[in-house]
Every structure is written in C-alpha cells, then in structure tokens.
Amino acid sequence: MSFEYMFAHANIILKGNPEAELRRISDLKRRLYEHQSNRVHTTLRMHDVELIFYEAFKNKQDAQEREKYLKTTKGKRAIKLMLQNTLAPVV
C-alpha cells in the first residue's frame, strides 16, 4: 500500500501535555520526524513526541470533512472518549 497518495489526520500527543495537534497532512512520517527532531516551533522545547492516533483517507475531501468535525467540541469529546485509556496517564 502506498501512502504517498493518501491524506491523513495525525493526532499527535505530546508527553506531559494533553493538547493534541490535529491537522490534515500528506506525509505522516515526515511530520512526525519534524516534531521529534525539534523542527516544529510549537514542539521545540518539548521532548518525547509520540503519535498515538491517525486516520488515513484516499479522498482529500473526506479527510477535510473529518478534520473539520474533529475540531468541533463534539469531535474533541469523541477523541477523548475513543482514546481515554491512552490519554489517562497524560491528563
């Protein structure tokens, strides 16, 4: 399976920080590498960036609609409920 034609949502949780990055990206490996190697301004002083969840879509519009939903209050609640065991030590 080739990931170069997929669009993905990456929900990146930073250890010690319950806030997540939620954005549509086309290269998940590159974006995670950028976070882990301190190339992203918001994670420059943070360590141990860990990917705990992502969704991949073949269709860009589907990814955009999902991203829009997950940024709503209802979507944020859904993420917290879905990942409650994973987020428990962080929160």
List the helices and strands and how they pair.
Blueprint: E1 7-14, E2 17-25, H1 28-36, E3 49-57, H2 60-70, H3 73-82, H4 84-87
Antiparallel strand pairs: 1-2, 1-3
Gist?
The protein is α+β, with helices and mostly antiparallel strands. The protein has helices spanning 28-36, 60-70, 73-82, 84-87, and strands spanning 7-14, 17-25, 49-57.
- Helix content estimate: 25-40%
**What's the structural domain tally?**
1
User: How are the strands of the biggest sheet laid out side by side?
Assistant: 2-1-3
User: Care to count the β-strands?
Assistant: 3
**Beta fraction of the residues?**
25-35%
Number of helices: 4
CATH class assignment: Alpha Beta
Report the end-to-end length measured between terminal Cα atoms: 35 Å
| Principal-axis shape | globular
Would you write up a description of this structure?
The mean pLDDT is 76. The protein starts with 6 loop residues before the first strand and ends with a helix. It has a three-stranded antiparallel sheet, with helices on both faces. The chain is 37% helix and 29% strand. It has one domain (7-87): GIY-YIG endonuclease (3-Layer(aba) Sandwich), CATH 3.40.1440. β1 (7-14) and β2 form a beta hairpin. With 91 residues, the chain is α+β, with helices and mostly antiparallel strands.
List keywords for this structure.
91 residues; GIY-YIG endonuclease; alpha+beta; globular
